[in-house]
């Protein structure tokens, strides 16, 4: 019995859609899933269909539909609390974030997917595919070691469900590792991995196991062998025949094109290879943005134009290094978020009561703000008070979905926490509105804190988190406790004079 067998209806249709997905016919799978969603009212069936629909859109590269599809899938999965569905949804979301160049969001989904799939009590074929998709997401985002661990987990869960190990061959993981090594200057290491891929395919063909390979794996093997040939090592396999498979995915299309470029290089036709590179752009997410530049360098070297080859190689290296820089930035953001969380946990007096805390950001909520200010006024103290609103938040929810909106709110909460002085108070007041309280401060100190808030918000890489949607802050300031001014009066005065921070 598989996970699908527990559903009350549409089991055969959903199984057919899954089979189409596995053989690279995502458009046909999408049509079936849409029919199921139009007829079923069962929450679990709808959640599964919405998750798989999200995956089909990713395979087809229909990025404009990602945000809406993910929001629908996420909301449906949240209602079921099923760990497999949650893991599968986050694995797809990580792939979607990668295709949208949102690395930090992708990493968040990777962690959530891994935790959810590890919580599945009894693995079956569906869970095995969930681990497979997580491995793919790890690989695309550049975490090759984690990808190998996840694909091994897929093999183990699949073997327990009676699935052949060749189904989870996943040559794309090692291919991306190989080209990554080459982009960083380790061509010998790249060739070692490509030889291993060639040897694996040879074993499968000799034993007849190649018939069990997924169709989408064939152009990956083809590109690996074509890339090896472009680096000067021939192969006996039918590379051109392998490149023709793969179905309707964006990945297969780009691998076919770049594989033909590699075959032109291997056949000593560098001019033809350069024309192909110039004629058809490829997605930078399939093998990394550096791969076309690296192939261009090999073309020039083959033609004897070593100065142009060096220039193209340096460009490829710069493109590869940008990913490393983004990973470092994400690491710093992660450390900052962890420190913010530790600070929140230590300061029990400000954040200890869960009924007084906003669950999304971990900040005090409106009720705790009111208590804090009431106690301060009872002591006869005064404070500067600021009201901060997000600029562009409505567009974030409309274009990217509520999940991205939540990430933006969490990021802003972290920004505010980091720039406050020791003893200052930050609360999420309502929606995208935050309130900061600076005890004992006047206009001069408030202006300095406002400047720090503005600089910190402007320094965030919003383009990576919510591409094409600028984010800003509008802040207004007032005083509470001065001339008997109450919290409500101070908030109204601050809100009335908000300006872009």
Automatic annotation (TrEMBL):
InterPro entries reported in the protein's UniProt record: Diguanylate_Cyclase (IPR050469), GGDEF_dom (IPR000160), Nucleotide_cyclase (IPR029787), Rev_trsase/Diguanyl_cyclase (IPR043128), TPR-like_helical_dom_sf (IPR011990)
Organism phylogeny: Bacteria, Bacillati, Actinomycetota, Actinomycetes, Micromonosporales
Stated name of the protein: Diguanylate cyclase
NCBIfam families: GGDEF
Pfam family, one: GGDEF
GO annotation, cellular component aspect: plasma membrane
Database matches in PROSITE patterns: GGDEF
Highest taxon above the source species: Bacteria
Single GO BP term: negative regulation of bacterial-type flagellum-dependent cell motility
MF terms in GO: diguanylate cyclase activity
GGDEF domain segment(s): 381-501
């Amino acid at each position: 019995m598989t996970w699908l067998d527990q559903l009350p209806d549409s089991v055969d249709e959903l199984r057919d859609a899954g089979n189409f997905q596995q053989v690279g016919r995502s458009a046909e799978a999408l049509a079936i899933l849409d029919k199921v969603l139009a007829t079923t009212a069962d929450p679990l069936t709808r959640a599964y269909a919405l998750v798989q629909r999200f995956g089909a859109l990713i395979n087809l590269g229909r990025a404009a539909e990602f945000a809406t599809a993910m929001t629908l899938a996420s909301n449906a999965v949240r209602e079921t609390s099923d760990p497999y569905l949650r893991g599968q949804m986050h694995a797809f979301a990580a792939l979607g974030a990668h295709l949208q160049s949102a690395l930090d969001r992708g990493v968040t989904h990777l962690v959530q997917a891994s935790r959810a799939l590890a919580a599945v009590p009894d693995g079956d074929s569906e869970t095995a595919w969930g681990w497979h998709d997580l491995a793919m997401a790890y690989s695309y985002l550049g975490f090759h070691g984690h990808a190998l661990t996840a694909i091994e987990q897929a093999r183990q869960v699949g073997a327990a469900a009676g699935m052949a190990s060749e189904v989870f061959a996943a040559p794309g993981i090692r291919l991306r590792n190989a080209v990554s090594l080459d982009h960083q200057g380790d061509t010998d290491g790249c060739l070692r991995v490509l030889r291993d891929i060639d040897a694996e395919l040879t074993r499968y063909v000799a034993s007849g196991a190649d018939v069990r390979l997924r169709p989408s794996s064939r152009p990956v093997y083809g590109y690996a062998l074509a890339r090896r040939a472009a680096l000067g090592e021939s192969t006996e396999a039918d590379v051109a025949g392998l490149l023709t498979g793969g179905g309707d995915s964006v990945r297969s299309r780009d691998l076919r094109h770049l594989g033909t470029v590699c075959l032109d290089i291997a056949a000593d036709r560098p001019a033809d290879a350069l024309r192909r590179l110039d004629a058809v752009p490829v997605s930078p997410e399939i093998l990394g943005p550096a791969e076309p530049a690296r192939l261009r360098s090999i073309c020039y070297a083959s033609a004897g134009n070593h100065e142009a080859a060096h220039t193209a190689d340096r460009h490829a290296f710069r493109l590869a290094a940008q990913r490393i820089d983004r990973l470092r930035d994400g690491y710093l953001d992660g450390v900052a978020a962890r420190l913010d969380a530790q600070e929140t946990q230590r300061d029990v007096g400000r954040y200890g009561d869960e009924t007084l805390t906003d669950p999304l950001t971990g900040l005090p909520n409106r009720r705790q703000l009111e208590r804090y200010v009431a106690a301060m006024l009872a002591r006869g103290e005064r404070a500067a008070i600021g009201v901060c609103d997000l600029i562009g938040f409505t567009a974030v929810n409309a274009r990217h979905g509520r999940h991205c909106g939540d990430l933006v709110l969490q990021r802003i909460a972290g920004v505010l926490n980091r720039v406050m002085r020791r003893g200052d108070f930050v609360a999420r007041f309502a929606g995208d509105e935050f309130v900061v309280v600076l005890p004992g401060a006047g206009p001069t100190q408030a202006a300095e804190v406002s400047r720090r808030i503005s600089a910190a918000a402007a320094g965030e890489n919003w383009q990576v988190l919510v591409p094409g949607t600028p984010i800003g802050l509008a802040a207004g300031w007032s005083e509470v406790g001065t001339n008997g001014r109450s919290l409500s009066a101070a908030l109204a005065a601050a809100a009335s004079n908000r300006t872009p921070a």
